[in-house]
Each structure stands twice: as structure tokens, then as C-alpha cells.
Fold this protein.
Amino acid sequence: MPLVAVRGVSRIFANGVQALGGATLDIEAGEFLSVLGPSGCGKSTLLRLIAGLASPTAGTIEWSKGEWPGGKPDLGFVFQEPTLMPWATALANVALPLKLHGVARSEREARAAEALDHVGLKGFERTWPRELSGGMKMRVSIARALVTGPKLLLMDEPFAALDEITRHRLNADLLALWERSRITVVFVTHSVFESVFLSQRIAVMAARPGRIVSELKIAAPYPRTEAFRTSADYAAHCRLVSTHLSEAMAAA
């Protein structure tokens, strides 16, 4: 059984808008999966349902009992905005989930410092959010999502608002984190180029209602460097994924 199995999930909002209709998707343990689609196709809604932040109107989301002792999902969530507490240092922001779990101060600060080190922010522990760039704020947000050691990391277009240079750098750093930990990642994006660079597999969504219409494997080996971005293999994958995305938009 996959780590998470989304089966025929629909979501209708109180105003009658149907964001999802019969979405079905398997999430395998340890994989890097991107969910690709145009704005408004239900990508973020799907991610929030997986996270348990909302409930499906119909269908089920099943968790592998063998992977989740006690049946409780162990996950981290990175939103489109960093959502940092402006009155707290980077260290305190990252330590917050541990504080909420009752972890002792010395332990949570040590673990938060280690998480910041893993995202390239060693030495910025006592820095305030207002003193950080957009990319650095997102690194803090990623560290906060990882500090509890989750098995599943959900990321909702985390780099969409960043400039291209910063976005490329964070893409590479995220892959390095994933290769080191082999955490399961579900990454929502509307960028063909980003999805191809990052993913082992891409699920393409169509809208009205939102649903998975195709899945593609990206067989290029890791690590993926900047040389991959300029390779013929990368270009070929991008063309194929673009074709599937165009077909999904036409289907809507």
C-alpha cells in the first residue's frame, strides 16, 4: 500500500464551488512527487485535504498503517508564504512546533539550530524575520516544517513569489535535503520547469472540477545540477510535461 492513497476525493465549498471532483492519487514512501496544474485547479485544496486541514466532501484519504504507528499522520506543511512570527527570532520560529509538543527548551533549541543548519542558515539563529530576505524566510519556514522529523513534507508553491535566481538555489537545496533524508515530498507548483527539475513523478491536474488527468515519471538521475537544466534530456521532459499540461487545460 502507498504511504497515502487519495481515492475519488471531491471537495465542494459552502458557496457551491466544486474545487475537486473524483481526484485519485497514490503517494509512495520516499518519493518526490509534484502536483502540477494551472491556478484554480484545486492543487492547494488537495494538499490541505491530505494534511487534514479540511475534510473531503466525498471519497477517502487512506494512510498506510505500517508507516504510521498509531494511525496518526506525521507530516510537515510549508505554505505559499513563510508565515513567520515577526516578534520571534528564526530559532524561536523553528522551535515552535517542538514547544507545542512540550519538548524541553534546551532540546528544542538544539534541534531548531540543527534544522536551520540543514537549510543553510547556521549563524542566523538570533535574527528577526524583518532582517531576512524572502528566500531566507522561506528557508526558516522549511526548517520549521522539518524540525519534528516528519515522514511527509507537503509544500504549497513555496517558491512562487521568489526571483528566478533564488528559486533555482532553493530548488537545489531542497533536493539536497530530500536526497539526504529521503522524506516523502509532495510539491505543488504551476511551473513545468520546476516540476521537471525536482520530481521523480509529476501528477498533472485539470480544473472544473479539479482532478488528476495524467502522471509522468521523470527518469533523470540525481543529483540534478544546473547542468541538467540546460541538457537535451531536461528540454525533452519539459516538452512532454507541457503537452500534458496543455491537454489538461483544454480538458477543463
Q: What stands out?
A: The mean pLDDT is 93. The chain has two domains: 4-74+151-251, 85-150.
